[in-house]
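Predicting holo structure, magnesium ion bound.
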Amino acid sequence: MILIQGKGVSKGVVGGPLYFFRRFEREVEKQRAEDPETEKNRFAQAQAQSIKQLEDLAGQCREKSGDESAALFETHAMFVEDENYVAAVMKTLEEEQCSAEYAVAQAGKQFAAMFAAMEDDYMRAREADIRDVTRRLLNNLMGVAEGGFHLEEPVVLAADDLVPSETLQMDRSKILGFITQGGSESSHTAILARTMGIPAICALGDGLKQQYEGQWVYIDGETGKAFLDPDEQTLRILCEKIEKQREIKKQMENLRGKEDVTLDGHRIQLYCNIGSSEDVRGVLANDGQGIGLFRSEFLYLAASDYPSEEEQFETYRTVAAAMDGKRVIIRTLDIGADKQADYFNLKKEENPAMGLRGIRVCLNRPDVFRTQLRALYRASAFGKIAIMFPMITSVWEVKECRRLCQSVMEKLEEEGIPFNENTEIGIMIETPASIFMAADLARQVDFFSVGTNDLTQYTLACDRQSNDLGKYYDPHHPAVLRALKLAADAAHQAGIWIGICGELAADLSLLPTFLAMRIDELSVSPTAVLPLRAAIRESVAQTCTLEKLKS
Ligand code: PEP
Ligand code: MG
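Done. C-alpha cells:
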C-alpha cells in the first residue's frame, strides 16, 4: 500500500483511476518521425477535426446567444487554417523530421510570442487565441478531450496545481475528485471542488508521482489521505466511509423542504455559492433558498475571450429564472490575484493579491464593466437578481459603481429594454478598510456579504494561496471574528442585512457565533446546505454567545 498525506480540502471518499492533467505547452517533447508525409496527414486530420468542432461550437453559440459570441469560434477556425501558421507547421515537419504534435506546439509558441510582442492591445490579446487553437489541435492529435483528459471514463484528476481557469474548462462529469501536489484550502480550485461536491486533497507534495498514472487511487477528502493499492483493513475502512456517506446523504434528504429556523424561532437564510449556471442543479437538489454568491468571474475564466453581453445575459437570466423568484446575488467580475484570464493582459504584479483585482479592474475597464452591468440589469427583468461588488475599500468606489449602474439603467430605458430599477445593490466586506468604513458603506447599499477568505487573508496579512503559513491563516482568529461582529453591528444599525459567503459560512463550529451576531444569511457550497440546516434546527439562538471572540 502507498499512502500519500496531503490536506483535505473537500470532504468525501472516492476511488477511481488516477489521471494526470496535461498542460500541452510544457509537455510536448521532440519525437522523431520516420515519415513526414504521415505526420502531414495526421496534421490535416486534426485540422479538419478542429474546424468541424469550431463550426459546431459557433453554430450552437449563434443559436443560443447570437452572432457576436459565435465570432470567437469562427476566428479560431480561421487561425487553424491560417496560411502562415500552417506553413510554420509544415516547415518544422520537413526540416526536423519530428511528430506533428511537436511541429504544432512549436508553431503555437512562435505565433503566441509574436502576438504577445505586438503594440496594439487588440492584437496582443490574440495570443490567448493562438494558445487555444494550438491546444485544440494538440488535443485532436493526441486523441484527448478538451481540458486535457480522456473522456471515456471518470477519473481522479491529479496535477502539480490547478488554476481556476483550468479547472473550469474541464468536463465536470468526468472528474471524481482532485488531488494536487500544491494548492491550499482557500484557493479557488479547492472552492470549486466544494461547489461541485467532489472530494479533493491538496498539498500532497512529491509523494504524488506521475508514475502512478492509471493506477486505482482512493482519496479521502476529510483526512487528506490518498491510497494506492490499499491493504485489506484500509480498504474496509474506506468502504465503510463510502457507505456512511450514502447513509448521511439519505438522512439529509429528510431535511429538504424544512425551514432554516432555530428551536427558539430565529430564522436565517441559507443560500448557495455557485460559479456557473450548471451549479444551479446542485442548489435545487440541496434545497438552497437562494444564491448568495455567483462568482461571475468564472464565466470569464472559462472563456478564451471577453464574454459578450448576450452570453452573460443568457447565463444570468437562466440562473434567475431557474431560482424562480428566490434571490440571486451576482458578484461582478472579481478577477486578478489567482484568477487570471490571459486575454485581460493584466500586468504581472509583485503582490497580485494586493494589486489590480476585483472592483479595481472593473473601474479601470469601464467598457468591460458596462457590458456586465447591462447583462445583469437586462436579466433583472427575469427574476430576483441582486448585484454585489467585490474588494471594496472606499465609499467613492461604491458611489462610482452606483453611478455606472444608473447610467446603464438610463440607457436601457432609452432603448426600451425592460429591467428592475429596484435591483438590490450590495458589497463584499473582505478588506480591513471595509470593516473600518462599514458604517459609512452601509448607508450606500442594500446589503453586506462577508468574504471571509479574503478578510482572513488581509486581516492577518497571510496569503490564502500559501500552504506554508499553516496555522497563521486562521479564519477562527479572534481578529477575524471581531471584524465580522463590527460589520454585523454596522449593517444592523443602518437597517440593512448581512450575510457571509466566504468558506467560513459552512463551518458548523462557528454557527453559534454567527447566530449570536445575528448574521442574516449564510451562503455555502450546495452540499453544505442540508448539514447546516440540521445544525440550525438543533440550535437555540438565545443561548449562543460570542465566546469565540475572546483572545
Ligand atoms: C471571499 O473572499 O471570502 C470570497 C467569498 O470571495 P473569493 O473566495 O472568490 O475571493
Ligand atoms: Mg474574495
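Residues 390, 430, 451, 453-454 surround magnesium ion (ligand 2) (CB under 6 Å).
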